[in-house]
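> forwarded from #structure-qc
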């Protein structure tokens, strides 16, 4: 792997962790260092950092809070 790519991964521990969990990216980056942006997109998807994933997470949290409020209301009666 090119030294620039190794330094980039060393400077970004989250991306380095993604590459460790998905070792095929070592091969991809060794053959074509230009795929770094593609790997970053895949890492975002892996870690749940895309906008749709974050919206879904917030939605689930709101549903949980609503359910707890209903449960507290029922228990109060």
């Amino acid at each position: 792997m090119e030294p620039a790519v190794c330094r980039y991964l060393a400077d970004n521990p989250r991306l380095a962790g993604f590459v460790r969990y998905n070792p095929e990216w070592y091969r991809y980056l060794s053959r074509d260092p230009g795929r770094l942006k593609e790997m970053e997109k895949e890492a975002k998807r892996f870690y749940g950092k895309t906008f749709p994933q974050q919206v879904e997470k917030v939605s689930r949290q709101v549903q949980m809070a609503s359910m707890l409020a209903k449960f507290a209301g029922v228990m109060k009666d």
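QC bot note: The chain has one domain: 3-76. The CA atoms of residues 45 and 53 lie 8 Å apart.
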